[in-house]
Specification:
Elements: H1 2-12, H2 15-28, E1 34-39, H3 46-57, E2 60-63, H4 64-73, H5 77-87, H6 94-104, E3 113-117, H7 123-135, E4 142-147, H8 150-158, E5 160-162, E6 169-171, H9 198-220, E7 225-229, H10 234-244
Helix pairs in contact: 3-10, 4-5, 4-6, 5-6, 6-7, 8-9
Length: about 250
């Protein structure tokens, strides 16, 4: 039964999609396997670099927040457990998150490896991840540390303004509107997202330094951390990433 439905599904896939997937698999066949972790504070550029790394090395991108939501929506056994915890206002346990990552790694798109973003955030999580990978006979190959000074981040993030109805974004220093505080097209007032204020950033950075810096130390001892100068222009950071992954 499963086979016939799979065949039917394949028949419904447009040829152009099939061709691009075949080409992708052909291109990926000679790529080395890579299991990567991206670490960095909010606004350090992980979101800009991860799609480039994903395409260059044929990896799957695992953002734990998205995966949890998907598991809950799909009502997988782990998703059901995660929802129970969330409904009670509890944090989802490390074991559950590692279990959801474990399940995700079975997907064909993760065959060549993965990029983990947003996890592990603590040393205990890093240890649990290592144990799970060890059972599969693999390990984390490289941890990319998007190192950036807090003051630069503050300038980057707190300078962001948005025109709510169109989504147009501005930056007081790097891409200012023609008239301060107003959208170039409509003249309507710009707003700052809640997460982009100095107070929110300060608390997020404090949490990052406290929780995540020990994770960098943990992986540094294994000799697998590549420190990037994340304050540089995106193209230069991409070059650093490529060097770090050689």
């Amino acid at each position: 039964m499963a086979t016939s439905s799979a065949q039917a599904n394949m028949e419904d896939v447009p040829s152009v999609d099939l061709m691009s997937e075949l080409l992708r698999r052909f291109k990926c066949s000679d790529k080395p396997d890579k299991r990567l972790i991206l670490v960095g504070p909010p606004g350090s550029g992980k979101g800009t670099q991860s799609p480039i790394i994903k395409d260059d090395y044929c990896l799957c991108h695992l953002a734990t927040g998205d995966m949890l939501r998907a598991a809950v929506a799909a009502k997988t056994p782990l998703g059901v457990k995660a929802k129970e915890a969330m409904d009670k206002g509890e944090l989802v346990s490390d074991d559950l998150v590692v279990g959801i990552i474990d399940e995700a790694l079975k997907k064909p798109s993760c065959q060549k490896g993965f990029i983990l973003d947003g996890f592990p955030r603590t040393v205990v999580q890093a240890q649990k991840l290592d144990e799970m990978l060890e059972k599969k006979g693999v390990k984390v190959d490289k941890v990319l540390n998007f190192a950036i000074d807090d003051a630069i981040l503050e300038e980057r993030i707190t300078g962001r303004w948005i025109h709510p109805s169109s989504g147009r974004t501005y930056h007081t220093k790097f891409a200012p509107p023609k008239v301060p505080g107003s959208d170039d097209v409509t003249g309507e007032p710009l707003i700052q997202r809640k997460d982009d204020t100095a107070a929110v950033l300060k608390s997020r950075l404090e949490a990052f330094h406290k929780q995540t810096e020990p994770v960098i130390d943990y992986y540094s001892k294994k000799g697998i951390v590549a420190n990037l100068h994340a304050e540089k222009a995106p193209k230069e950071v991409t070059t650093e990433v490529q060097k770090g992954l050689q």
